[in-house]
Each structure stands twice: as structure tokens, then as C-alpha cells.
Amino acid sequence: MTNTGRREGDEVAELYIHQRAASVTRPVMELRGFARVGLKPGEKKTLQFRLTPQDLQMLNRDMHEVVEPGLFDIMVGPSSDQTSSVPLQVVAP
Fold first, then answer.
1. Is 60 helix (H, G, I), strand (E, B) or coil?
2. 25 neighbors 18 (Cβ within 8 angstroms)
3. How many whole angstroms from its chain centre is CA 77?
4. Is 37 within 8 Å of 45 (Cβ atoms)?
5. Tens of pLDDT along 45-79?
6. DSSP 2
7. E strands, the chain, in order
């Protein structure tokens, strides 16, 4: 993220996931992390988010927490309607 303005400011980066196909219906976007960053004029910062298996878990039909294999979209942006996305393939062990 970069502050292109003349004043100090804060920006929030939000991390969402979406599993494209699952055995139960999942939300279109699930918030899994966020970070508020202060930026001075002209300052640029790179953020890192760490996803764990727990971040990809869901409750299956039997109400057990599981991570199902499949394709996830990992989305990051300043809000839910302004994200960039990358795919993540989860394979069965």
C-alpha cells in the first residue's frame, strides 16, 4: 500500500477467503484477517497475512470442523468490494 497524498493517513487491508465448491454452502466472502496501517506522505508498506488450516475450516453436515480439498479464492483489498484475488488449491493429504 502507498500513501500518494500529502498528509499522514491510515489504511485498512482486509483478507477474505471463498471456497468455490464445498459440500455445504459457504459465504461468498469470509473475512479472515485485517490490518490497519499508518502511512506518512509518500510512504509505501508491504503487508503479509498468514493463512493457517484453521482459516480454511468449515463445519460440515455432521458439524465437524474440516478443511475440504478444493479451490479457494484469497482476496485482499481496502474493502470487500475492492479486492485483488489469487487462487489457492487445497489437496487431500
1. coil
2. no
3. 8
4. yes
5. 999 999 999 999 999 999 999 999 999 999 999 99
6. B
7. 9-19, 30-39, 58-59, 65-66, 70-79, 82-90
Cell of 64: 465437524
Kindly state the cell numbers that stand for 40: 506518512
Q: How far is the C-alpha of 5 from the C-alpha of 42, rounded, in Å?
A: 7
Cα separation of 54 and 26, whole Å? 15
pLDDT band for position 1 (50/70/90)?
confident
pLDDT of 75 reads 97
CB-count exposure of residue 75 (10 Å: 0-12, 13-18, 19+): buried
The pTM for the full model equals 0.88
Distance CA 93, CA 38 (A): 40
Handedness of CA 88, 64, 24, 35 (dihedral sign): negative
